[in-house]
Amino acid sequence: MGRMVAIEAKPYEFTCDLDRTALLIIDMQNDFLSPGGFGELLGNDMSVIREPVEPTRRVLEACREAGIMVIHTREGHRPDLSDCSPSKLRRTKRQGAGIGDKGPMGRILIRGEKGHDIIPELSPRAGEPVIDKPGKGAFYATALHAILTNAGIEALFVAGVTTHVCVSTTVREASDRGFECLVLEDCTAAFDPTDKKAALWQIQQQGAIFGWVAPSEKVLTVLRNS
Question: How far apart are CA 109 and CA 87, in angstroms?
Answer without folding.
Answer: 16
